[in-house]
Write a structure and sequence with these properties.
Layout: H1 3-46, H2 56-69, H3 76-94, E1 98-102, H4 108-117, E2 122-126, H5 129-138, E3 143-150, E4 154-155, H6 157-165, E5 169-177, E6 181-184, E7 195-199, H7 200-205, H8 207-213, E8 218-222, H9 225-232, E9 238-242, H10 244-249, E10 253-256, E11 266-273, E12 283-291, H11 297-307, E13 312-319, E14 327-334, H12 340-352, E15 353-363
Parallel strand pairs: 1-2, 1-3, 7-8, 7-9
Antiparallel strand pairs: 3-4, 3-11, 5-11, 6-9, 6-10, 12-14, 12-15, 13-14
Helix pairs in contact: 1-3, 2-3, 11-12
Length: 367
Amino acid sequence: MTEETISSDQRLLALRDRIDEIDGEIARLISERADCALEVAEVKKATGEDALYYRPEREAQVLRRAMERNKGPLTDEEMARLFREIMSACLALEEPVKVAYLGPEGTFTQQATLKHFGHSAQSRPLAAIDEVFREVEAGAVSYGVVPVENSTEGVINHTLDNFMTSNLKICGEVELRIHHHLMISDITRPDAITRIYSHAQSLAQCRKWLDSHYPNVERIAVASNAEAAKRVKGEWNAAAIAGDMAAELYDLKVLAEKIEDRPDNSTRFLIIGSQAVPASGDDKTSLMVSMRNEPGALHDLLEPFRRHNVDLTRVETRPSQSGNWTYVFFIDFKGHRDSADIAAALKEVGACASDLKVLGSYPRGVL
């Protein structure tokens, strides 16, 4: 054994000893943080009121600070993910968060739920967006997670329509980078694929890739990517387009990775609940506005935002449920409803609108 080998071995041993020391310190600090969380729970219980254990604005602030302090080599996103899981586990000691999401298991909505609430939350898959709204309204769960728009295919109208009849508020948002994979089961013959299952939006997001690689294969739209993955388990001549969670859940082999047509393909999800969220320092506000059907109505709606320097990030139009040829505007903008400029703009919009409902002010999605 050379001196160089001995030196390398000694250095490895020293590094491993140092890692063990650091791991011990991390474990001690996590336990200390968990003790603080339990004390917070006791203080809240002592008030005798229905205490809010999950505070979206507080969690967003903690995650932002974690990323601001990050010096690498881990990415900001990875650092935020680690802190999210620590917060999730500590919160579960106080009061486990119950969350419903658009299922089934293995969907991107479940992935968004885990990204926002962590693995210690008690999550429940439901079959439809309407059911998620109903479960939160009934108090069976505290929060719901529903998709609202995709960067390639646009807005999910069903989610917007539910806000027309619901009193729930938007408490947060999650943006998820969407990667689609072509996957098969252990009985699939790759050279004999005659049909590909996926959700209609996923098929649309992979249209060019499919046209190039499987132009003559039937494309079958199903209720979810997870259902597509499940079907493939029993078919020797079929493949599915889905994400990593579905491949893992149903033990499928990925035949081709990241087949989405746009590399920046992402979906935005909303966290819905019954509570109003205080300002976090970096917020968005969403509102729903019905305007009278008259000349200049759209100008009257948008002008107050321009005058008060409010930065609009999205404007969507949906047919009103109250009559033909009348429309509802869904508007997102930067800032919290309690700030002076936004409060002034909303007051002016409300004066010219036939109806205005603030759907919520909430922390902007962290990564």
